[in-house]
Amino acid sequence: MASKNNTIVRIAGAAGDGIQSTGELLGKTCSRMGLHVLAYNSFQSAIRGGHVWLQMAIGTEKQLDHGEEPEVLLLFNKTSPPVHVPDVKSGGIVFYNAASIKKEDIESLRLDLNYYGLDFKTMVAEAGLTNVSPVMINVMLAGALVESLNLDPKVTLEFIKHKFLKKGNEILELNNKIFNLGFEWTKINVKPLELKLKGDNKPKLFMSGNDAIGMGLVAGGLKFYAAYPMSPATGILHYLSTIARSDKLIIKQVEDELAAINYAVGAGHAGVRAAIGTAGGGFCLMVEGIGLAGMAEVPVVAVLVQRGGPSTGVPTKIEQADLNLAMGGNGEFPRFILVPKDLEDCFYQAARALNIAEKYQVPVILMSDFFLSEHFETIDDFDFSKIKIERGKFMTQWNKNEKYKRYAYVEDGISQRVKPGIPGAMHLVVSDEHNEYGHLMSDVEAGLPHAREERIKMHAKRMRKIQSMIENGDAKPPVLEGDIKAETTFVTWGSTYAYVKSAIRLLEKEGIKVNNLHFTDVYPIPKEQTLAMLQKCKRLISVEANMCNSLCRQILAEIGFEITEHINRFDGEPFTGEYIVKEFKKKLEASKQLVNA
Amino acid sequence: MSANIVERKERPALDPKDFKGEIHPDWCPGCGDFGVLNCLQRALAELGIPQHEIAIISGIGCSSNLPGFINTYGMHTLHGRALPCAQGFKLSHHDMTVVAVGGDGDGYGIGVGHFVHALRRNIDLTYIVMNNSIYGLTTGQTSPTSELGMKTKSTPFGNPEAPLNPLTLALGSGASFVSRAFSGNPKQAVEIYKAAIKHKGFALIDTFSPCVTFNKINTAQFYRDNTYDINKEGHDTSSIEAAFVLAMKDTYGTNRIATGIFYQNERPCYEETEKDTLSIPVVDHKLGISPERAKELKARFK
User: Fold this and answer.
1) Is A376 on the interface with B (CB under 8 A)?
2) Total structural domains in chain B?
3) What ipTM goes with this model?
4) Residue at A405 is within a domain
5) Could you tell me if A466 and A517 are in contact, meaning their C-beta atoms sit under 8 angstroms apart?
6) With contacts defined as CB-CB under 8 Å, which chain B residues touch A262?
7) pLDDT digit string, tens, across residues A346-381
8) Is residue A470 located within the same domain as residue A561?
């Protein structure tokens, strides 16, 4: 909900219209002024021609979701008005491209809005500007937005300079003039909104969740990343590729997902910190490789960015329905699954994932989703000094007289792991069941009495790592946020955290007390602590972007506690605080009626 | 920084006995894979590469058990995935000698997607395919190199599919070293393996390795009777055209099955494109980001 120190802007048009450029100019202006921005792209799987829009929540405080009702709407093409005009907050501003949208078509849609048609071609012609490309309308519209939101045009011009300087002074000058054209026109013609968007003047990071995951991996010592392009995980590959040379990383696009995971297993065994990134469909192809990492005890991090499924599903929309997949694979093997709750957390959890993978010599699955990975947000700062690289029982020397046992039976299940290439510790890592030395028992020994005993011991050794993760405090219980005495507790995982936080703020304003029990680590789950927390809550409602309540099923399977009330969304659009409040009130109403009946 | 990422040192020969693993191979008596194992051990010993500087990486199948029988580092991975694991390993630890091994089902069937890309990518490793034209470990089904009409457990009325030609496939996929050996001709095989390991780039050795149990057609005697060494007949290994002509001959139906080095072209290997990153092996890089670099990484997003 827009108030004095925050607002919502929506920009819509055809794919290829340059919505991203306008969004970037506005976003960077805000983030450089020290304002907070959260931007969400709604688009389809088409490079040109689909109808796309970008919604940005801007404010002096941290923005938790992209909101429902835009206060300023900017429309590029004639498909846009009927789709977006109905959503605008009453009294809001609508800018439109007068060259493609007719005045009578749009202004009759609603009478409670202020409409402004901008005729780019005529305006640049009247200003005597030549060599103007049609895409430069983005810069003019950015000028209109900056003035109508009462932002600092000097900051935008500085960013334009940064962006266009390499294209030469002439282009830069032209962009400056076009920006000012939009800015001055708006100053004269548009009744400004009553907004005080004052930033703290500390420029913020403005990035996507995929950028944050990529940066977190690098901060955590990543040296090797293999991937096959797949939305919404591709952003990680793109970001890492830009710094591959400067930061001496091996970043490989390979022939398929089977190759990606097995490249990473090879690299992980060689002794480098390796990761892959993919979406659910790609992860399906990788499951056997994840099992190999589990069996061979090779550290590897798999970033699984969820999108609408099943199969190819809805590639550019959000869903949280891949937890079963992350838990999948043939046989039983230890793994760790963690889920960042917001963009800042993406950075820290990515680095943490690499530590856990090496400490326990297991595959670690970091789950994100379309919203978390693809939306842009401002971040105050990432504290790299908080990242400590812990390599567990990794050894670069072997001076002992005894023969090296790769899979030595040890209490915590984690055997010493040596860097291949050092003298005296030659060994084999294997996908077949094996003894302490890595010698296979599958072919000629399996079933013989000593092999049965060995099988039990080796399987148990691997599985003891799960207990070690809990005992060492690496697998953490959920975190309860908000009023401890609240009547209702929302249960969340991953990106639903922030929407629920936003809902809680809205409900607090109405005097309704709710809190949030949030799971970051979804496997393994420490049973006693988690059970105690759940049992203290009065009324539990899960909030998940799926139909079948993956998290609740996980909690039931792992600790035997059932959550019976749910708020779900699986139409592909992300939750918002307002959406959750509405659904929650329906539940309150239903329970009241139940009492009265 | 080393001027040349991929170096080949001349070293004194080692004793092949030191390459013997602790485990005795569980292959059927008379299996061609024994010959391949011996030849590989001899080739590595003659090149003088210490055991700890070698990684043998396999997929799944009878022949993929080989890393268990040789005293080096190694990985025994998934069916069809020897090459991705080997390439990931090699890029991370490029100072080690990496040899991928497996069967025709592993490399030309389930793993063929990786095979063609490994050829064009040209990472500096050696790939020995023990080709017996049959699935042995799964007890005798048709393989990608089984000849047309061959009766197997899964094709009791004869194999309806034409065999894949690994050599033309390799030549057409940008290979820089293409060769064929026969496990029953160790003298030739050792020389080819040595040349392949010394080759800077991806080197394929399709090796006839007869299955004594399930393939009664392509037997050791069959290959002894029907193979000849192209390198003894003046074949020009720098000519891809000549290599194609020899490789395209119907090797399974004639008595003139070509073996030897078909093609060798030392084009720059993949590692040369990552000179800066590989100036020291990635596994020895310092991990993490300096405070100064952290500032730069963040500045890009401001």
Assistant:
1) no
2) 1
3) 0.97
4) yes
5) no
6) 77-78, 81, 84-85, 88
7) 999 999 999 999 999 999 999 999 999 999 999 999
8) no
